[in-house]
Amino acid sequence: MSVDDRRLDPLTGAIVVIAGNRQHRPNLPNESCPFCPGGLESPAPYDVRWFPNRWPAMADDRCEVLLYAPEHDASLPGLGAARVRKVVDLWADRSAAHGARADVSYVLIFENRGRDVGATIDHPHGQLYSFADVPPVPLGEAAQPTASAALSPSSADEREVASTPGWRAWVPVAPVFPIELLLGPEAPVPDLPSLDERGRDGLAALLVDVLGRIDALCGQAAPYMLVVHQRPFDGRPWDLPLHLHLQSPWRAAGVLRYVAAGELGSGVYFNPVVPEELAARLRAVQPALAGREEAR
Questions:
Q1: What is the spatial distance between Cα 174 and Cα 269, in angstroms, rounded to a whole number?
Q2: Fewest C-beta atoms under 10 Å: which of 4, 24, 118, 153?
Q3: What CATH number is associated with residue 223?
Q4: Would you tell me how many other CB atoms lie within 10 Å of the CB of residue 109?
Q5: pLDDT tens for each residue of 10-45
Q6: Which residues pair with 41 in a beta bridge?
Q7: In a domain, 291, yes or no
Q8: pLDDT digits (tens, 9 = 90+) for 106-118
Q9: DSSP one-letter code for 242
Q10: What percentage of the chain exceeds 90 in pLDDT?
Q11: What secondary structure does DSSP assign to 138-188, as a single string?
């Protein structure tokens, strides 16, 4: 069994995995898309699909690519709620599969959309990383005494943006990114596999809604980072419910907010967008793209 070169920075305590194999991975495909049906990674037709990452950040089959749709130019909000429900089911199924492994403590589902956040292939897809230990960010959330209150949808007030049956989305009180949302269930659920039919439908509909609102606010498909935080699968006590972080680095359409030396060097962040104003603007727009693919 191969072992990752996992290192601890003695100055900051940061964990860094040295993944030298990824240095030579293709940046942008020069030929046909490997994720389209008939491509390198998807030889047969599919609705949703997963496969091991050919250029994994960690060894031992801990990294997967999760394909959302066969259409190359599709987007998560444009798929509509019924098809995004299949994506939610894929997330849950793969979380359960990795969570059942004895060498996995935490399963992270995430998506990067757009070149501004490092996506190298435009085809709609996310990824899964399964960690031997609980990573510092979810572990830090669990250690924060105010985390449970921050993840309660009832605390959002004027920062709430949208809701669907069983789910709500709101702007956090102190976001780092200019566009940032939290998505959480109204009744606490520990992880994706624990979501019932109503919970999965509600999450799918909320993703279509809020991602469509962000695109409408920006007037075009905005880059974003989507992260699913769920309980660890190693049996440890865990009070925080399932929730999703949605962040875009755009402070205006096509205008990046850079997190650079002053913030990285201090650990203090300076956001030019007022959270309450962002929430009001997102509430006011009609979601773009939602259901366009379903209507075809």
A1: 9
A2: 24
A3: 3.30.428.10
A4: 25
A5: 887 888 888 877 776 666 666 789 999 999 999 999
A6: none
A7: no
A8: 999 999 999 899 8
A9: P
A10: 81
A11: HHHHHH-TTHHHHT-GGG-GGGEEEEETTEEEE--SS-SSSEEEEEEESS-
